[in-house]
Specification:
single chain; mainly alpha; two-stranded antiparallel ribbon; 75% helix; 1% strand; globular
Length: 285
């Protein structure tokens, strides 16, 4: 049990960080909540008008918001699922002993090291149906970025290519924390590699897996850069963050844009609670 002096010391040490967080994040967040209850434009051409929950009520009636929410959920579920599976496979491969393992680990991190805007623009050129190298390799003209049914899958593929190394890195750290003695004992007992994976690797890797899923889900739910660079404000791929930017910057609607920002925050918080209630609570004990 911590003594009163230790608790007081802990608060003294944490207080500067808390003050910085309140200053950098807390105040802007409070402003977003405040303006979400007003009808106002960014330039304040007209005096702000208090409308209460009217902006939030319109969220449920706005077809553009519903479509953006659906696009965001599809992007999040598909991309995070693929990145988790591929990241785990890559982590298991580079965790094993083989010649050139260090070089392979470095090479795998290259997509993640490239800035998202740069990689998105690079893939936009590569997927172009006129001069893109992907169409050259396929020996046919496929309009990946012009056909609505291919646009979102193409963006998801680019995100998976870029972010899978991040998942692999987090899971590799979790794999390195598992004692090798457990595998040696399991091998002596006659357990196969598949049995060792299900009985040792996966249960002990669950805490790292949960943390990786939370990080990636939070990132995917607020995705903006890769979508905006590759498709702009196209309704077929417009996510909540892109729609939020369009409302605030293009439409100059401060009140409704702030309400969308709050909605994104609530959705992200709900996903975190879902993870913690389903698998995170037991995994992080």
């Amino acid at each position: 049990m911590l003594t009163l002096r230790q608790v007081r010391l802990a608060w003294i040490l944490v207080l500067p960080t808390l003050l910085v967080v309140v200053l950098v994040a807390g105040y802007p967040l409070a402003q977003v909540f405040y303006w979400s209850f007003f009808k106002a434009d960014i330039a304040f051409v007209e005096p702000p008008e208090f409308v209460g929950l009217e902006n939030y009520a319109y969220l449920f009636q706005d077809p553009d918001f519903r479509q953006a929410l659906w696009n965001t959920l599809k992007f999040t579920v598909v991309s995070v699922s693929l990145e988790t599976v591929l990241g785990l496979a890559i982590a298991l491969i580079i965790h094993s002993n083989f010649r050139g393992r260090g070089l392979v680990r470095t090479a795998i991190l290259i997509p993640w090291a490239i800035p998202t805007v740069v990689s998105a623009k690079m893939w936009q050129w590569m997927l172009n149906d006129v001069y893109g190298v992907i169409n050259v390799l396929l020996s046919q003209k496929v309009a990946f970025l012009a056909r609505p049914e291919l646009l979102l899958p193409s963006i998801i593929a680019v995100d998976v290519w870029k972010t899978t190394p991040f998942m692999a890195l987090l899971l590799l750290a979790g794999l390195q924390m598992i004692p090798e003695e457990l595998y040696e004992a399991a091998s002596i007992d006659g357990a196969s590699r598949w049995q060792q994976f299900w009985s040792i690797t996966l249960p002990l890797l669950t805490p790292a897996l949960v943390v990786a899923l939370i990080f990636r889900t939070l990132d995917a739910l607020r995705v903006f850069d890769v979508v905006f660079v590759m498709s702009g404000v196209n309704p077929a791929t417009r996510t909540l963050a892109v729609y939020n930017r369009q409302t605030l910057v293009d439409f100059q609607d401060l009140g409704y844009g702030s309400a969308i920002s709050v909605a994104i925050l609530v959705i992200i918080f709900a996903f975190v609670l879902l993870y913690m209630r389903t698998v995170g609570k037991e995994a992080l004990k």
